[in-house]
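Q: I have two molecules that I believe assemble together. Could you output structure tokens for the complex as a whole instead of separate predictions?
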Amino acid sequence: MTRAPNASRQARVLFAEMLKTPGKWRYGYQLSRQTSLLSGTLYPLLIRLSDQGLLEAKWEEPEKPGKPPRHGYRLTSDGVAFARTLQKKAVRPILRPRLAGALS
Amino acid sequence: MSARPSIPRSAALLCAAHARRVLLRRNQFWADGMEQEAHHIDDDWSALQWALGCVFASYAEVLKAERFFFPFVARLCLAAIALFYAQQLLSGLIAALECHLYDLPHGVPDPVALLFVYRHFFFTPVAMTGDMCIRLDAIHFPLLRHAIQAGGGSLYLAAGLRVVQGRASAFPLVFGAFVASLLAIAVAQFIPGVMYDNPSWYWNHSPFRHHTMVSIAWNTWWRLIVCLCIGLVVSLDDKPKLPAEVITASR
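A: Yes, here they are, computed for all two components at once.
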């Protein structure tokens, strides 16, 4: 059985974090701190979500002088909808297959 | 004058730049974003950790997106073979030095040393004089053959490096080296007393002269196969590089 796309634990954590303030642009390192995802996990995830149209990225002017521009990320409207669906599924109680069979 | 960055900071910036170069093959936007994010991390060790993760992420992306792994391994294997061939040709160039070190005209009493020099030399027929003491006389090769060997070995070396880089120029280089090795064999045929003309050259005193020629033909055949494989792999893997002005403009 194949896993649903973007349903990994890391993707869920990222979506949950970005859904807190969907319109706000976030930075890569900031997201890493907030989600505890390392850059080696975070970037492939961001790239994949961007390729799927769930995330948008743009160059942002630096806050501190003398620093280069950096990427800002936020969810697209499709991304927000997907994240909400994912959140609802996550809220649903998870039962072990044997227990679920006994209850039904 | 700005303060010199610390070692972890320098390492972080190097890693971030490497991650950018790797990912540039796939996506310049993400490659630049990944590198520049490292400049915004204040703590040096955190920046290094971040940059190492970026290196991992960039390789993962390239492997995934470009089916990079197989050509990369194939290139490394072929480069190793090319370097081995280079070593075979170039080792003949240190013959004079070895002659001097082991004082060959007066015999080599040590079997280990004998084995070492025997593998790096062409000799006249072995003359056993006692159990351990063997007298060997090195055959003097003409300068032309040394030059061909040096040329062929250098071409193999250059081809090995170009193969690692995945450049199509590896093929003409390795083909040139292959031709040079054939020439070296052909020239050796005209040297009196050389192994191809002397069935008793081997330790086992093989009575089959054609045995040597079969071995040479077999090696030549494999060299040709390696040459063609290199041509195939680098032609499949040679990617157009982004022009420098595009890279500069994006930064």
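A: One point stands out. The two ends of chain A are 22 Å apart (CA to CA).
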